[in-house]
Amino acid sequence: MYYFALLLIPDEARPSDPDGRAAMLAAYQEFNARAATAIRAGDALAPSATGVRITGGPTAAIVTDGPFAEGAEVAAGYYIFEAENLDEALALARDIPAAAHGAVEIRPMVGWNAPTEPPGADWFALLLEPPANVTTPDTEEWETVMCAHAEFGKAAGDHILGGAPLHPPATATTVRVRDGNVLLTDGPFAEGAEVASGFYLLRCGDRDEAARIASMIPATSVELRQLAGMGVVLQAR
Q1: Residue 14 burial (CB < 10 Å; 0-12/13-18/19+)?
Q2: Where does the pLDDT of residue 79 fall: very low under 50, low under 70, confident under 90, or very high at 90 and above?
Q3: What is the spatial distance between Cα 176 and Cα 35, in angstroms, rounded to a whole number?
Q4: Which of 69, 95, 203, 229 is in Cβ range 3.0-4.6 Å of 121 for a Cys bridge?
Q5: CB 63 within 8 A of CB 216
């Protein structure tokens, strides 16, 4: 099964000095090497100040420049894992460096439309919905939403590199590691007005084009962030 891992860190935990950045990069390279057989994709995200948030849906899109009003921990990257079960996915998550000073939210995915080539400095679009709007697979409401996304797929064409819907937020587990102790919390990392319902990886020429494509996505809100271009896409086992 595929699992989506959203990495969340305090703003101040993102190192600004060269030595700090080098140490952080080395820690992630070490994790990537250890977990290589399970990693199917992943990358860091550029700071939210360089991204946009799109609200109102495709018919009345409003684009707002970052940074966004977020909680104490902000999205800093993602992984896609292929794991036998949730326990295996959680064992991977606890070794992600972000878990030691922030949190990692693990959520089962409904399939995985994997890119056919490694993304570079492309775009990550996180889809957000009010909890009451989140649909459950194999329901009539789910099929309606999937039809809307199929239409988006036709309109966006080659701009879409990959993506997946996520199972409802009740299936999420948040992982933190403090003083060597693994702390697991059922549910998403924060209770808010909106929760993640899926994501797309988009290839666009610049931020304006990425925002235009993302505004077509059938979602209440879309947080659009550029990928750092350090990611990895591995073939399935």
Answers
A1: middle
A2: very high
A3: 18
A4: 229
A5: no
SS (H, E, C) 23-39: HHHHHHHHHHHHCCCCE
Tokens encoding 96? 């992600």
Q: Domains in the chain, start-ordered, CATH in brackets?
A: 2-226 (3.30.70.1060)
Cα 23 to Cα 17: distance, rounded to the nearest angstrom: 10
Q: In what order do the strands lie in the sheet with 221-226?
A: 62-65, 52-55, 221-226, 123-129, 195-202, 160-165
CB 112 within 8 A of CB 39: no
pLDDT-above-70 percentage for the chain = 92
Half-sphere exposure of 138 (CA within 13 A, CB side): 1
Q: How far apart are CA 55 and CA 162, in angstroms?
A: 22
Is the distance from CB of 225 to CB of 48 less than 8 angstroms?
A: yes
Return d(Cα 138, Cα 200) in angstroms, integer: 21
- Taking the CA atoms of residue 39, residue 44, residue 48 and residue 49 in that order, the dihedral angle to the nearest 10 degrees is -160
Residue 232: per-residue pLDDT: 63
